[in-house]
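seq:
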Amino acid sequence: MSRQTQAMEEVRALNALGLQSLREIWRARYGAPPPLRSPDLLRRILAWRVQAEAFGGLDSETQRALKSNTQPRGLAAGTRLVREWRGVRHEVEVADSGYIYDGERWASLSEIARSITGTRWNGPRFFGLRSDDGK
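struct:
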């Protein structure tokens, strides 16, 4: 069985596992697991790592962009922003004029973040488009 085939089987098997089992796999492969409480998020990160080992990781251009902490200036319509908040996954779709969240059209990411959290947030920061230092 090829390394790639084995990796895909490992990734499929992750779907049936709970948080504790996912943490055990992480611990066996990579050491101390990240302090996540979301099995979905841990499963996705673990799946990415397994696949990156088998198929190769990010290309050098993407690695440079991530290291420079650059974010796209504008988001194209159709882009999906995903944020997990208190164990619930929230998806926002960028529209031509505004955003679509939970079946409704919104004017700003900050309004959506406020609706999700109940407190004022900088929308781009909440959705990971801006760092804490405003970049």
